[in-house]
Design a protein that fits this description.
- The protein is mainly α.
- It has a domain of about 90 residues: Serine Threonine Protein Phosphatase 5, Tetratricopeptide repeat.
- About 80% of the residues lie in helices and about 0% in strands.
- It is built from 27 helices and no strands.
- Helix 9 runs antiparallel to helix 10, helix 12 packs antiparallel against helix 13 and helix 14 runs antiparallel to helix 15.
- The N and C termini lie far apart (about 95 Å).
């Protein structure tokens, strides 16, 4: 049937294009014009679609399907008001034409009038031959309104009609995920598997749902069935490997990751996962080897860089960690995780000026953790930059107003600047809370520490 339609379309389009070349006027019946116009819409040749439409309506001025194609092109061009007027005319001609209401729904949806769009789609349901098309559109409108319960209900109807529509399935699972309806998701997926026991996508997704329900053995079984159903299904090997890794079956996880690697072009994600597995097993050389493979395969893959940096950080090899951190920053100087590591590494290596810049970049890129603020202030203290340290400390207080460790740092900096009133203000904050200050912190300002300790004794 499709082949016959394709041949008819080719013949009609070929004849239409021959007419344009010869500058003659041929007659086409309405169905031929529909075929030609739809062909050009599908291929994105809108100007030719418009030209065909103009000729079609001149020859068949009251043909509703041609007028609907005209309104569709108007909607594509953003001529919403003109399309609405035309659709009103078509509705008067054919009030039972579902496509009129579907296009009116499209216009309202594009104008963000989603409630009105839904009302038109319910009208379309009264006349639709293919209910699943309208159900799917309804579900999408409900998703936009974040009414995931209604969206789920309509997607579920669609999947019952066409179990192989994976886009609908993924949308349905998204709704169920949002609703935390994992048991219902398993029920739906098992229903699909009853119809097709070798549906590898359904097996994979049911495994993911079992993980959400903390049923790890059932999930492992589902991933196995996905692989049995399709032994080249990379996603199933990866999900199985991740689960095995979380269960501590590291060698088995490596085997599954390597199976996935054989089935597709090398992936930095897989190479880094294997690297982490070897790291967990204490295979240090292999871990470094796979981290480097991940970097070489895709230098923009951040997890490959942070993996090797953290590997050397955990080994206490700060110089090597710093080397890779600088390399990573050369490739992407806007990645927050690199700057945070750079800041800590430079500080640990005594490179305080570089650390101060790195802490500033870390904050500017959106990391407002208390530890980062305090590390930045401490770095400025080591550099004797008291004015800037007080400025940064006061910014930090806006995020953490009750933190006495910030109060102590600010008091100490104001003491160094000879601003006793400001110093006393922050000391008073500390004394009111009467909490113990960490000994390591007290060493930053020994004379200030004595004041606090004497105040506590009183």
């Amino acid at each position: 049937m499709y082949r016959e339609f394709s041949q008819n379309a080719d013949a009609a389009v070929s004849r239409f294009e021959q007419m344009l070349k010869s500058n003659q006027l041929y007659f086409f019946d309405a169905s031929e014009f529909e075929t030609i116009i739809q062909y050009y819409i599908d291929t994105g040749e809108i100007n030719l679609a418009k030209k065909a439409l103009e000729m079609a309506i001149n020859q068949h001025p009251f043909h509703s399907d041609l007028l609907l194609l005209k309104s569709e092109v108007m909607i594509f061009d953003g001529q919403m008001e003109e399309a609405s007027v035309l659709l009103d005319t078509i509705e008067e001609m054919e009030p039972s034409n579902e496509e009129v209401y579907i296009q009116k729904a499209t216009i309202n949806s594009k104008q963000k009038n989603h409630v009105a769009a839904i009302e038109y789609l319910y009208k379309a349901l009264d006349f639709a031959e293919d209910l699943s098309e309208v159900w799917c559109l309804l579900a999408m409108e409900y998703m936009v309104l974040e009414n995931y319960t209604e969206a789920k209900n309509y997607f579920r109807r669609c999947i019952e009609v066409d179990p192989d529509d994976f886009q609908v399935l993924y949308n349905l699972l998204f709704c169920l995920e949002y609703l935390k309806a994992h048991e219902e998701a398993v029920e739906i997926l098992n229903g699909l598997l009853e119809k097709n026991p070798y549906n590898e996508i359904a097996w994979l997704e049911v495994g993911k749902q079992y993980l959400q329900l903390d049923k790890k053995e059932e999930a492992l079984g589902a991933f196995d069935f996905a692989i049995i159903s399709e032994d080249t299904f990379t996603g199933a090997y990866i999900e199985k490997a991740k689960l095995l890794e979380s269960l501590g079956h590291i060698n088995n996880a490596i085997e599954q990751y390597e199976c996935a690697l054989k089935l597709e072009d090398p992936s930095s994600y897989l190479l880094v996962r294997i690297a982490h597995c070897h790291e967990a097993l204490g295979n240090e050389q292999l871990a470094v080897q796979f981290f480097k493979k991940g970097i070489n395969h895709d230098p923009s893959y951040e997890k490959a860089w942070t993996g090797i940096i953290d590997f050397y950080l955990n080994k206490g090899q700060n110089d090597k960690a710093h080397y890779y951190c600088e390399k990573a920053l050369q490739i992407n100087e806007n990645y927050l995780a690199y700057w945070k590591r750079s800041a800590l590494l430079n500080k640990a290596l005594g490179r305080y000026a570089e650390a101060e810049i790195a802490f500033q970049n870390t904050i500017e890129l959106g990391n407002y953790e208390l530890s980062v603020w305090m590390e930045w202030i401490d770095t400025l203290i080591f550099l004797n930059e008291w004015e800037k340290a007080t400025s940064i400390g006061q910014q930090a207080k806006e995020f953490y107003p009750e933190q006495e460790e910030l109060d102590f740092r600010l008091a100490g900096c104001f003491q160094q600047l000879g601003k006793s009133i400001e110093m006393e203000y922050y000391l008073q904050n500390i004394n009111q809370k009467n909490n113990a200050i960490d000994e390591a912190l007290l060493e930053l300002f020994p004379t200030l520490a004595k004041k606090i300790q004497s105040s506590v004794r009183q």
